[in-house]
Amino acid sequence: MGVLQESTETAGRRLEAQAPPSAGRRFALALAIGVALGVVGARVVFVGSWLNLIPWGVAGLLLGAWSRPWWSATLVGAAYGFALAFSFMVAGYRGSLSLTTRLVPFAVLGFVGAVGGLMAAITGAAAFAIIARLRR
Question: Does the model's pTM come out above 0.85?
Answer without folding.
Answer: no
